[in-house]
Amino acid sequence: MLVVEADTKGRPNIIIIVADDMGYGDPSCYGGWINTPNIDSLAAEGLKFTDFHSSGAVCSPTRAGLLTGRYQQRSGIDGVITAAAHRHLGLQPHEITLSKLLKGEGYATAVFGKWHLGYDTKFNPVRHGFDKFIGYVAGNVDYISHVDQTGCSDWWEGDTLVEEPGYVTHLVTKHSVDFIHEHKHRPFLLYVAHEAPHYPYQGPNDKADRTVGGTFPAYGSREDQKEAYREMVEEMDKGIGDIIEALKQNDLDENTLIIFFSDNGGVPIGSNGPLRGYKNELWEGGHRVPAIVRWSGHIKPGTLCDEPVISIDIMPTVLELCSRDIPHGLRLDGVSIAALLLDSKPVAPRTLFWENGNQHAVREGNWKLVLHAKGLDGGIGLYDLSNDLNEQYNKAEQCPELVSELHQKLNEWIQDVHKDRL
């Protein structure tokens, strides 16, 4: 069998680790309440963002944006793909994904854990450029029985439903570590899509709550759910440590770019630190998330970055670092931040947008316009994030021209992303 040797200079391995519903104020390196020594080590040895945003305020949209480098509305994934009502929806196989492009460059590709971009096998990760997929396709499963919220078994190997005993977080880690060992001689893209700390709130020593066809509490049976949440984050952190150790064992540490972030803001059982709002909202707490990038020997250790960055920037950044051109005719909304990571060069000024149902937000510089957010009197809010990070002082009445300008840009964006679908 032909073994493809990794080019240690120009073709780094890529590991993208995504936490599910982890808040800005959860990990200890963000001043949080949960001890996360391995996530902290990534920050100490790499770059920690203070102004990083998910492109969505809920799960499916952010994941679509991550893999396509485009605002998720362009691919029709503008809301949660639920197990109960949306089994016919998903990321269409014709979409051009990061995994397809790197696979075409000789990369081994795998995703372990949460997919949430379609239930039908035509939407399966193996249709989107991933050589290997082990995990679940719903938004969440019981961590022990692997049953989704509708009472269906949901654990897959490729496009085949299988049974595999084990705590979800541990299985995601195990398969990720095995993949690293198996592909140490060729470049790889590894997407580690953790379920933690999304409900049901179950620690590694808990029993299963969900059974096939049964009735059960969606959030789990633990009375001390906040403690379960802590256990879930700590187990995920241990798994990240195992992944880092596997890289070191295979002498891949300096040739592997690790990207860690949360798919959206946290929920009330966790913490968003100083931020207003939670998941499913377009206050900062719904989309400003913890995010860290480490590439030993390339990114200066202990770097703190205050530049506004969004998760759709990951695809163009990875493509540049892997020397893969963007295909002709493909329009990405994200921009490469490679120069920011490697040389601390600022990103050119731009306007960022969010949409979640009838909620909208637009950010330009430090100004953020919010429309129809939960608890927003009058439906329009304008905030200067440079001195009002928790969005308490509405400047809309004082700055009507700025409101009008940002609102116009938002309207143009809405029309653009909903008509421009490949």
UniProtKB/TrEMBL annotation:
Record keywords, A-Z: Calcium, Hydrolase, Metal-binding
Superkingdom as given in the UniProt entry? Bacteria
Q: Which residues form the Sulfatase N-terminal domain?
A: 12-321
Q: In which family does this protein belong, per the annotation?
A: Belongs to the sulfatase family.
Q: What is the protein name given in its UniProt record?
A: Sulfatase-like hydrolase/transferase
- Biological source species: Paenibacillus radicis (ex Xue et al. 2023)
